[in-house]
Design brief:
30% helix; 22 strands; globular; alpha/beta; 21% strand; Rossmann fold; seven-stranded mixed sheet; Metallo-beta-lactamase, Chain A; single chain
Length: 448
């Protein structure tokens, strides 16, 4: 059995792993490469394998860096089946349709054709099957089972068994305990493991202080009569923010100011969350049972249309604007950043990972100015990062998740991290858990 690393190496994004056994091929994830652009140039390259030879694709979760090249895979000849949990399928459809619009605009600017179309997305959805957690199924020589990764709604750890071997793909592991969703499940034993390392070299802020950090930021900006901008991924981060804002507003812990969710995608995805309440954790389920609508509260305004979005400008500060994209690489947040990054009274809070080269990373690292829509915008507002809101496990949690497997693991492959970060986690796994670990290179191959 052979495992090939065709993405997610040397970088956080672009997850794409090919597993081969008995002449059959399957993929785990087929994600978009992201960084300085919404879609990096290598996304336009042909796949290093023939998509026609792939029997099935298994998706860990709906984020674009794990799903974004599925339509391209179809366009290049893939006609197998795609499998994920039910929420991932629903969220995946929304995010692929949304990204097609952004990608076509970016391709137009680059004077090239986009690498997939709306028709490709529709064709992908016809091949996509939903399978709940803990319902094992087989595809060719492979037996598959999904476990809860606790990262976003429907996110899965994928366990593959073939040739008497057990291989675990972590997907993205959650920063547990998370608001709303259930905690990450532990895997007791495996022969091989492919683990993400987005935050593999650091420790997050105290999670119990999440709401306090948010409260402090709101109070500071309201006192200055500024605008609080929060670039937020439409999935999970926006819903987590709504959950905590609901608590702060209903308990009177923050001043009453207008709060805008300026993201059609986030609004649609919040509707998907309401559909899958059985995936919520016990605390959230109890709140819902008591009649508390955890994703709605006084002062919250949802701006679905472009016209509604533009009217936010007419509302005087103080106000809070939550919009995508999470790394400021596209979406409506850019319009607000162009308007308010230069305002010393305002602030921007980053609550998710910011890729190298992204506009969000530049602002966070203190760039004196950034370019938005071809215009140079000075950065004078306050910039904060609230890592406690990260949806990714930090180093201690990654090691704690690995620990139950340490006695059986023959090899650990550390992926989905910047090179120095992946190397740091691999070293920790070797030193503290005595697990043989390596950081694979792009296009590399491992014989299992």
């Amino acid at each position: 059995m052979k495992l090939y690393f065709h993405g997610g190496t040397g970088t956080v994004t672009g997850a794409n792993y090919l597993l081969e056994s008995g002449g059959e091929r399957i993929l785990i994830d087929c994600g978009l490469h992201q960084g300085g652009h919404f879609a990096e140039k290598q996304n336009f390259d042909k796949f290093p394998y023939d998509p026609k030879t792939v029997k099935a694709v298994f998706i860990t979760h709906a984020h674009l860096d794990h799903t974004g090249r599925l339509p391209k895979l179809y366009a290049e000849g893939f006609r197998g089946q795609i499998f994920s949990t039910p929420p991932t399928r629903d969220l995946g459809e929304l995010i692929l349709l949304d990204s097609e619009h952004i990608l076509s605009k970016e391709a137009e600017r680059e004077k090239r054709e986009s690498f997939f179309t709306v028709e490709n997305v529709k064709a992908v959805m016809e091949l996509w099957r939903a399978v709940p957690y803990h319902e094992p199924f087989t595809v060719g020589p492979f037996k598959i089972e999904f476990y809860d990764a606790g990262h976003i709604l429907g996110s899965a750890i994928i366990v593959v068994e073939a040739e008497g071997k057990r291989i675990v793909f972590s997907g993205d592991l959650g920063n547990f305990p998370a608001p709303i969703i259930k905690p990450t499940e532990l895997i007791e034993e495996a022969d091989y493991c492919v683990i993400e390392s987005t935050y593999g070299d650091r420790v997050h802020d105290d999670m119990s202080k999440r709401q306090e950090f948010l409260e402090d930021a709101i109070e500071d900006v309201v006192k200055r009569k500024g605008v609080l901008m929060i670039p937020a991924f439409a999935m999970e981060r926006t819903q987590d923010l709504l959950y905590h804002l609901n608590g702060l507003v209903e308990k009177g812990r923050v001043p009453k100011v207008p709060i805008f969710i300026d993201s059609p995608l986030a609004i649609k995805m919040t509707a998907v969350y309401r559909k899958y309440k059985n995936y919520f954790n016990a605390e959230t389920a109890a709140m819902l049972k008591s009649g508390d609508d955890i994703l709605n509260f006084p002062g919250l305004q949802l701006t679905l249309t472009t016209e509604e979005s533009k009217k936010i400008n007419d509302v005087p500060p103080p106000k809070i604007v939550i919009a995508g994209s999470g790394m400021s690489q596209g979406g409506r947040i850019l319009h607000h950043e162009r308007r308010y990054l230069s305002d010393p009274k305002s602030a921007i809070i980053f609550i998710g990972y910011q890729s190298k080269g992204s506009l969000g990373r530049m602002v966070l690292e203190g760039a004196p100015e950034v370019k938005i829509f071809g215009e140079r915008v000075p950065v004078r507002c306050e910039a904060r990062a609230l890592s406690a809101y990260s949806a990714h496990a930090d180093q201690p949690k990654l090691l704690a998740w690995l620990s139950p497997m340490r006695r059986t693991l023959k090899k650990l492959f550390v992926v989905q991290g910047e090179p120095e970060v992946s190397a740091a986690l691999a070293q920790k796994a070797r030193d503290e858990l005595a697990i043989p670990a390596e950081v694979p290179g792009g296009g590399s191959e491992a014989v299992l």
